[in-house]
């Protein structure tokens, strides 16, 4: 069965800390995505990657960076966490056909 | 630019009643369309998708959706709602580009009364 896993379900960090969110997929998918989800705003795309070492900005990339060194792993990095980055973060992957498979999400709280 | 609108933020239905969740899109050609469901604290699960062909699409859990080009709509329906259907529902659009990005609506929260 298809599987997208995220390193943590819940994470609490302090303002200014560097935060790494990890996502791993086992389906050999080319495309991987990071979204944040906030009440009333739906899902907003932060970054996506269509190949190893390739990345493109989504709709809200400010304050974030990403890394994709291996096909199965896509990391989201908050260089200096701020309270307005408190959110649910969802990772997804896809291959042909546009359907995206989602991980369970990481709920990040920045205090 | 493409966009997806879900006009209803929150809908409440009684168990056993029929359900229709609305989705309107803006895109110059025929898009790929999706409905996802998110149970509390969970990731998103695909209910159904439309790429081409028959405009009435069947999905999992007894859901169906109808693509209407003339109305730029892709409404989700279920004839009889179960308490376990309580969740948030998202409509999404893909323009068919090679990067397969999805544009999501803001979601509709469904509450089911016993």
Shape of chain B: globular
- How much helix is in the residues of chain A? under 10%
Chain-averaged pLDDT of chain A: 93
Nearest-angstrom radius of gyration of chain B? Answer: 14 Å
What is the helical fraction of chain B, as a range of percent? under 10%
Give the amount of beta strand of chain B, in percent.
over 45%
Distance between the termini of chain B: 41 Å
If you had to describe this structure to a student in words, what would you say it looks like?
The complex is a heterodimer of chains A (111) and B (114). Chain A is mostly beta strands and 111 residues long. Chain A is built from no helices and eleven strands. In chain A, the strands form two sheets. In chain A, strands 2, 4, 5, 6, 9, 10 and 11 form a seven-stranded mixed beta sheet that branches. In chain A, strands 1-3-8-7 form a four-stranded antiparallel beta sheet, with no helix packed on it. Chain A starts with a strand and ends with a strand. In chain B, β7 (56-58) and β8 (64-68) form a beta hairpin. The model of chain B has no long low-confidence stretch (mean pLDDT 92). Chain B starts with a strand and ends with a strand. Chain B is globular and about 45 Å long. In chain B, the strands form three sheets. In chain B, strands 2, 5, 6, 10, 11 and 12 form a six-stranded mixed beta sheet that branches. A four-stranded antiparallel beta sheet of chain B has the order 3-9-8-7, with no helix packed on it. In chain B, strands 1-4 form a two-stranded antiparallel ribbon. Chain B is mainly beta. Chain B contains no helices and twelve strands. At the A-B interface, β5, β9 and β10 of A face β5 and β6 of B.
